[in-house]
């Protein structure tokens, strides 16, 4: 019997929900990846749905067209439908059509619909107006000239009573004027007189004010523009505006305690709010303030202690971290008990925040190291990821280095950790540290058991590291040598080649015949000294080494750390190539230049080349002639190699030289010039100028350069060159020879050992004021660039909002004199930077020279 026809659920479209689900699924497929053919098919299928009157389905159609981003040919198909919807009586259609058209259209069509967009900006319906304004923000990136013509309409919309419209209008108007500082400042000044009613727009205005204050550079309270307005916003009825103003005040450059007080007061009120988001915002801001102004936050300590038991663990963690930064010595034990209760309930990223705060507290109150070290060792044994465990290990290592009394207990905590450590990297790092510090303790023998357990129980990488650590104990502690020899002999039967090879090497070096003799200086230097060649250079040299009767010579490895190549010019085919170009790799750099210079008779008597700089551009990109210069430094001379490229096809340059004016470099005397005979189009060439300077001295000076040549016309079609030429000149940028040009960047793998090995014989220490700086990182970078030395152990990176920092530098000064520098920076409340400079070198005069460079820089 035939069944009656029943409409299935899948075919229902009573509310359009089932039909709308199809484009929704298709949109998910787009993010998973559609090829061009599939995307085109989906696009044409979706355009048929313009006939639907269902509002929800139509909105999904608009969204699909935006996601598909049709090509120029396909855009034409939907343009008429979208333009029709843009003039529809239905506001939802108008708003979405504007958004889609502005997303998929090009500049040509945009000019046609510009009139409609201007009308939409001032439309009475806030949804339509916001759609036009947001589209303007996006279009400003691709068609700025058109959008800037809307300024009057946008200016009018800034006065809108609709909160979102005013917010979007302010954002667009500021972007239109942001490149004109005076216009942007005038806009902000007008709006601070009470024209902004939307809390969202007011938050945006506060951010623009903060930007103006930063750019003004004024750090005195009376000189800050708009500071009174920020302080007035602290009494606004909207909480978001109050918080934004308070945060802006706390982030002012060189903010004073007097300026902070009103902001801290409102943030303290937020700490007791019933809204978790306000409590979190307040405590996070106060945590940042505590890094630079801990005393200003101490009044909030009682309120923050109540947040330790907050249900939101993020709030509790930040409260603890802030209290650790602002608390006093008497409150440490109480805080540690409170922290222990909730550490297991929070995520690793928040645990790391607590660990960092505890490390800072331990360095601040050294007498409390026992309780803080015990806490770190306890959480080290708990479950956690790699970054969390690494943060704890790093903290313990820093405490051991900074607080001598904490060494033995700290090393024992680390030994207990590696008994059950699942991370190979951390185990090897701890074993390396144990080898350096363990032999210096009162009873080194108690660490041997922990180290040898690693040889028995761990993987090959850790076993090899443990063998090296055992050898270090044998080298430093003669009484342990017999036991170390026994253990190393057992390692000779290990299954891994690296472990066996290390054991064999160390037995031979230490004298494995059971005779207890004092370890030689060369052996200690090998075990504890630093490798004086960069690992990348060593790797490159080993790769190109061809096995032969001659052994590999480590002295042949270049010692200079090559900087990254300069960014290529826009016209990449016009860049100098060959020997005139920057060397392609570290192994070819100085050697290639040295071969080039020694082949030129005028420079062959200058001796061994000490350093060649990276190329310095003397012309801008896309100019008629591309010129850069390489500075070659010898002991008593300096040679400028000018790499030139002719970028004009219709010209041939002959007798090319650079006229160098050394009037601002009085200690330099020009001794030789080597001109370039011919410089055809797009064929790089070099011309040289050599100067004599005082022997072995870091002489500095400034040189002005003029490119002089004879230009001859060339017929591009035939390549024929006219016989007659015209003498011409081309002004180049000035060139400076700085103190950094006399320093080779050569790193050391273990700075502390290198520092102790160098000894204090030629050490010189002094303090300097570097004046006001935007941040500590800026001061660190400036000093590194001034000295031209290699940062060691990642100390060139300054943690954000840090008030103090230590930077370690290494290098070789002209004359092949090794230099080590320890820089200690401090930042006070007025943003003034003080620096303590300690220099150790192999010559007293070099230590004095480094200080002279800093003093005059």
TrEMBL record:
Residues 740-854 form the Coatomer subunit gamma C-terminal domain. Residues 1-18 have a biased composition (Basic and acidic residues). One of its GO terms (cellular component) is endoplasmic reticulum. Residues 1-24, 563-592 are annotated as: Disordered. Keywords: Cytoplasm, Cytoplasmic vesicle, ER-Golgi transport, Golgi apparatus, Membrane, Protein transport, Repeat, Transport. Signal peptide: none annotated. Its main location: cytoplasm. Pfam families: Adaptin_N, Coatomer_g_Cpla, COP-gamma_platf. GO terms for molecular function: structural molecule activity. It is a peripheral membrane protein. Residues 39-511 form the Clathrin/coatomer adaptor adaptin-like N-terminal domain. Residues 592-737 form the Coatomer gamma subunit appendage Ig-like subdomain domain. Residues 580-589 have a biased composition (Low complexity). It comes from the Eukaryota. It is found in: Cytoplasm; Golgi apparatus membrane; Cytoplasmic vesicle, COPI-coated vesicle membrane. GO terms for biological process: endoplasmic reticulum to Golgi vesicle-mediated transport; intra-Golgi vesicle-mediated transport; intracellular protein transport; protein secretion. Belongs to the COPG family. The coatomer is a cytosolic protein complex that binds to dilysine motifs and reversibly associates with Golgi non-clathrin-coated vesicles, which further mediate biosynthetic protein transport from the ER, via the Golgi up to the trans Golgi network. Coatomer complex is required for budding from Golgi membranes, and is essential for the retrograde Golgi-to-ER transport of dilysine-tagged proteins. Oligomeric complex that consists of at least the alpha, beta, beta', gamma, delta, epsilon and zeta subunits. This is Coatomer subunit gamma.
């Amino acid at each position: 019997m035939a069944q009656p026809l029943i409409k299935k659920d899948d075919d229902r479209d009573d509310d359009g929900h089932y039909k709308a689900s199809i484009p929704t699924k298709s949109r998910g497929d787009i993010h998973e990846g559609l090829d061009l053919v599939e995307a085109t098919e989906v696009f044409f299928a979706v355009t048929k749905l313009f006939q639907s009157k269902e509002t929800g389905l139509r909105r999904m159609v608009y969204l699909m067209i935006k996601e598909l981003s049709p090509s120029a040919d396909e855009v034409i198909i939907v343009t008429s439908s979208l333009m029709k919807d843009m003039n529809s009586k239905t506001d939802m259609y108008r708003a979405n059509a504007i958004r889609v058209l502005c997303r998929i259209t090009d500049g040509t069509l945009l000019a046609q619909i510009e009139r409609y967009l201007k009308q939409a900006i001032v439309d009475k319906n806030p949804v339509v107006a916001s759609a036009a304004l947001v589209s303007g923000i996006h279009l400003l990136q691709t068609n700025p000239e058109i959008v800037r013509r809307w300024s009057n309409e946008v200016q009018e919309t800034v006065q809108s009573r609709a909160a979102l419209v005013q917010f979007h209008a302010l954002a667009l108007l500021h972007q239109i004027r942001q490149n004109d500082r005076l216009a942007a400042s005038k806009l902000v000044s007008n709006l601070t007189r009470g024209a902004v009613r939307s809390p969202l727009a007011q938050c945006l205005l506060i951010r623009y004010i903060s930007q103006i204050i930063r750019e003004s550079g004024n750090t005195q309270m009376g000189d800050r523009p708009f500071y009174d307005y920020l302080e007035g916003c602290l009494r606004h009825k909207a909480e978001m505006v109050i918080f934004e103003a308070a945060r802006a005040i706390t982030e002012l450059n060189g903010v004073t305690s007097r300026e902070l007080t009103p902001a801290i007061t409102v943030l303290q009120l937020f700490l007791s709010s019933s809204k978790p988001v306000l409590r979190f915002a307040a405590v996070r801001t106060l945590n940042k303030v505590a890094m630079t102004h801990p005393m200003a936050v101490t009044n909030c300590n009682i309120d923050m202690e109540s947040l330790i038991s907050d249900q939101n663990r993020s709030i509790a963690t930040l409260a603890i971290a802030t209290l650790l930064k602002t608390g006093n010595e008497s409150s440490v034990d109480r805080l540690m008990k409170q922290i222990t209760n909730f550490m297991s309930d929070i995520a690793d990223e928040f645990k790391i925040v607590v660990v960092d705060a505890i490390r800072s507290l331990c360095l601040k109150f050294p007498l409390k190291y026992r309780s803080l070290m015990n806490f770190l060792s306890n959480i080290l044994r708990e479950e956690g990821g790699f970054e969390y465990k690494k943060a704890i290990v790093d903290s313990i290592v820093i405490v051991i280095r900074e607080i001598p009394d904490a060494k033995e207990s700290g090393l024992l905590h680390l030994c207990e950790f590696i008994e059950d450590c699942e991370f190979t990297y951390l185990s090897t790092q701890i074993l390396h540290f144990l080898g350096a510090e363990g032999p210096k303790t009162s009873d080194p023998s108690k660490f041997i058991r922990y180290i040898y357990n690693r040889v028995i129980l761990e993987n090959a990488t850790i076993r090899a590291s443990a063998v090296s650590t055992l050898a270090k104990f044998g080298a430093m502690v003669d009484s342990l040598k017999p036991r170390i020899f026994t253990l190393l002999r057992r390692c000779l039967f290990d299954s891994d080649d690296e472990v066996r090879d290390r054991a064999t090497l160390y037995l031979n070096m230490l004298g494995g015949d059971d005779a207890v003799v004092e370890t030689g200086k060369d052996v200690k230097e090998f075990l504890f000294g630093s490798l004086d060649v960069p690992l990348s250079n060593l790797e490159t040299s080993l790769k190109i080494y061809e096995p032969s009767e001659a052994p590999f010579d480590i002295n042949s490895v270049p010692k200079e750390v090559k900087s990254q190549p300069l960014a290529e010019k826009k016209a990449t085919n016009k860049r100098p190539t060959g020997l005139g170009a920057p060397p392609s790799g570290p192994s070819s750099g100085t050697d290639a230049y040295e071969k080039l210079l020694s082949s030129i008779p005028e420079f062959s008597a200058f001796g061994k080349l000490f350093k060649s700089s990276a190329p310095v551009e003397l012309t801008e990109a896309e100019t008629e002639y591309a010129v850069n210069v390489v500075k070659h430094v010898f002991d008593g001379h300096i040679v400028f190699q000018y790499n030139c490229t002719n970028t004009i096809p219709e010209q041939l340059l002959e007798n090319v030289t650079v006229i160098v004016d050394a009037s601002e470099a009085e200690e330099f005397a020009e001794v030789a010039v080597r001109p370039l005979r011919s410089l055809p189009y797009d064929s790089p060439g070099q011309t040289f100028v050599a100067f004599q300077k005082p022997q072995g001295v870091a002489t500095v000076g400034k040189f002005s350069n003029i490119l002089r040549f004879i230009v001859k016309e060339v017929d591009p079609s035939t390549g024929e060159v006219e016989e007659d030429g015209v003498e011409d000149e081309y002004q180049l940028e000035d060139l400076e020879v700085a103190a950094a040009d006399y320093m080779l960047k050569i790193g050391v793998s273990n700075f502390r050992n290198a520092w102790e090995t160098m000894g204090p014989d030629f050490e010189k220490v002094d303090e300097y004021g570097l004046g006001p700086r935007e941040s500590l990182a800026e001061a660190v970078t400036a000093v590194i660039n001034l000295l031209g030395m290699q940062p060691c152990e990642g100390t060139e990176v300054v943690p954000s909002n840090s008030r103090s920092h230590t930077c370690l530098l290494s290098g070789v000064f002209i004359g092949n004199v090794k230099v080590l520098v320890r820089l200690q920076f401090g930042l006070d409340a007025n943003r003034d930077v003080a620096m303590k400079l300690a220099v150790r070198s192999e010559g007293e005069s070099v230590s004095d020279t480094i200080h002279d460079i800093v003093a005059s820089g």
